[in-house]
Amino acid sequence: MPPELSDAARLAAVRATGLLDTLPDPTFDDLAALAISVTRAPMAFITLVDERRSFWKSVLGLGELTPEQRQNAAEESFCHLVVQDDGPLIITDAPNDERVNDISSVTSMGIGAWAGYPIHSPDGHVLGTLCVVDTVARDWTPGQISALATLARSVTGEIALRDALGRMTRQAATSAALARTLQDSLLPPVLPNPPGADAAAVYVPAGTDTVLGDFYDLFQTAPSRWCAIVGDVSGHGLEAAKLTALARYTVRADAHNHVSACKILDQLNSALMAQRTATMQFLTAACLVFRVRGGDISGVLSTAGHPSALLRRAGGGIEEIRSAGSMLGAFDDPDLRNTHFTLGPGDMLLLYTDGVTEAHRRDDMDLFGDDRLLDTFAACAGLDATGTVDHIRQTVLAFTGGHTVDDIAVFALGVPL
């Protein structure tokens, strides 16, 4: 066994998760199910590896297992290779791959192909893997491998979230700084800028010491295709943070399979419905799938119980773009639709959460409202995406005197002149 397996700091990190020898967990099972969905593999595992064994926190595809059966010896598992290299392990033909063909599980579990990524502790130690297994040799597509990487990061994020919340509980009081750190972990650290496009986003936390649920994301799903989403989760605190994380990682894992924004939101709705609890949490969202070609952006928008998108043309006119679907996580069929849009040079598309239009002063219920937002957006003519979202942020905060009762998220996408 590699020496990395017995590293004291790594083993301490594994034990600190509190996940060894615990019962199956719906959150981890949902992520394993997504791995099966995107790869079409018959088995998926989320493992934690100590110095002697690979414990299966989640295992799908092997039927009902007792706690004692949800593990195998470290030398019988491929996971020790992932721990050793701290990187992905992609096997297309296990019986003929010299890296693994002498590992007993190739025969005992009938492994034909295996693909997995490491999961990490908050301080970077390899805890184990998210992996999928097929009983026959097969090639894993680039999209499937990319989705596995995203899902492994979501497992890492879930563990980090639980670690942060555990620290908060032990402190017996919610720390505003920690809440903000937790909230920030649910947003992309850097927003990419698609070649030929101009994109920016801004997030303003509410004046509170708990975690709320506004989020945004922008990422590439194919060489010439991108996906953007802005969402607003109901409620606050732990449940809102968990739902935000599930929404963001589900969309990232699934979006590369679709060119339809409403299909992406429909798949997210299915995941939320499967996870639904007595608290009846839901979210609203606006999703874009778009391409940049020949100096233009073309794509589709789908909204689910969310404010309409606003499109400002280079000439100054502003129009609403909406596809009237229902909020997600509440209905089996949210009746989602796609609306097509095209942006030319100088055009700008704006997505936002209702924290913008419902903002008000501390002692006055006069809302910022739709009309003020339209005027503010119109006044951004000539500004790039970064200048646009920042001007809207400053205008809303000036109107409220810095008072915020709800988070604010604003995303702008345009074509430079």
Brief summary:
The protein has helices at 8-16, 26-39, 79-85, 105-108, 142-171, 176-185, 237-254, 261-275, 354-357, 369-378, 385-400, and strands spanning 43-49, 53-60, 71-73, 89-91, 113-120, 126-134, 198-204, 214-222, 225-233, 283-293, 296-304, 309-312, 318-321, 324-325, 339-343, 348-352, 408-414. It is α+β, with helices and mostly antiparallel strands.
What does the model show?
The structure is a single chain. The longest helix is centred in the middle third of the chain and has 30 residues, at 142-171. α5 (142-171) packs antiparallel against α7. The protein has helices at 8-16, 26-39, 79-85, 105-108, 142-171, 176-185, 237-254, 261-275, 354-357, 369-378, 385-400; strands spanning 43-49, 53-60, 71-73, 89-91, 113-120, 126-134, 198-204, 214-222, 225-233, 283-293, 296-304, 309-312, 318-321, 324-325, 339-343, 348-352, 408-414. The protein folds into two domains: 3-158, GAF domain (Beta-Lactamase), CATH 3.30.450.40; 179-414, 4-Layer Sandwich (Phosphatase 2c, domain 1), CATH 3.60.40.10. With 417 residues, it is an alpha+beta fold. The strands form three sheets. It has a six-stranded antiparallel β-sheet with strand order 3-2-1-6-5-4, sandwiched between helices. Strands 8, 9, 10, 11, 14 and 15 form a six-stranded mixed β-sheet that branches. It starts with 7 loop residues before the first helix and ends with a strand. Mean pLDDT is 90; it is low at 172-176. It is built from eleven helices and 17 strands. The radius of gyration is 23 Å and the shape is elongated.
